[in-house]
Design a protein that fits this description.
The longest helix is centred in the last third of the chain and has 19 residues. A six-stranded antiparallel beta sheet has the order 8-9-10-12-11-13. Helix content is 26%, strand content 27%. Helix 4 crosses helix 9. With 326 residues, it is of the alpha+beta class. The structure holds 7N-methyl-8-hydroguanosine-5'-diphosphate.
Length: 326
Amino acid sequence: MADTGANPNSGNESDEENRKVKKLKGEPKGDRGENGEETNLSDFKPTSVLRDSARDKTIFVHGELKEQPAVVILEKTPFGEDTLTEMFKGAKTNLEVKNDIYSTYVFQPPAHLNEIKATVVCPATEAHVQKYQRKEIIMVEETEDDYKNITLPYITSKGLSVTWVYNILEKKAEKERIIFEDSDKELGFVLLPDFKWDQKQVDDLYLIAIVHKRDIKSLRDLTPDHLQLLQNIYQKGTDAIVQRYGLPTNKLRVYVHYQPSYYHFHVHFNSLSYEVPGSRVERAHLLQDIIQNLKSDPQYYKTRTLLFPMRTDDELISMYKAAGRL
Ligand code: M7G
């Protein structure tokens, strides 16, 4: 989630790049999706907090929205450099403590510069509630056989729905947010902002490339037959990001999750300066490494033991335990 800490790269950016990087206000923000309805969050009745983080300034709340189970994720958004002057000018400040040259204040900027990003899942399934709840996590070692006998049957029967992915590919939702598309059925993909990004600054850029092919569930399905697809995503995805946001390829982290939450192949593109929890080594596989691994061993992702983190209350863990693998 959002990392509002210091950006170690920002001191190296040219003025031109900085201009592109910092001012993204007014970019196309989104559409109303397939149902054309907007949700009024004043109707949301919170029942419990699934998770919160003072550091990330996020809270995951379970509750009801129009009598349907819902999860609402609230996240304080990063500061925009271009609005600082306006923010200071329009703010109310109340002194809390003063001691020598040091003082702290309650600082209340104008409401429009003090926004909170809200992500809503409604109706939320039990799987969503589980996904967002904080739980103990352990590493799982998955052999080729484990994948075939335990993980694959689990994914097939229990995976989260990918309707939202098909809506994007079929232009039923988020059509206005698409940054780039290669419409080739075999090699093509759609590149668009991830839900996690408010598109206000490039410091926390987060895009996803979703492939048009519907038969690749995850890393495990990749073979050298997909090399052209992977290279295409890397090349055209990074080119589109340089063109649109001025962020060069060497400032991007391009990777795939194993396990993903949604089993339709997609690639994550982050600004390198953005420390996203999902980019940690236990879950993120760099796209360039994947390409090299497939070149050096065509069976790499079919046969290798892959490690991944999993919550101890996940049903997959029970299945590994029942099979005597944990
Ligand atoms: P993942 O690797 O399957 O799992 O990534 P994760 O969600 O545990 O990271 C799916 C990515 O798709 C995540 O980065 C989500 O934030 C993003 N995402 C999920 N949904 C439901 C949507 C959506 O409806 N629209 C967009 N643009 N992004 C989404």
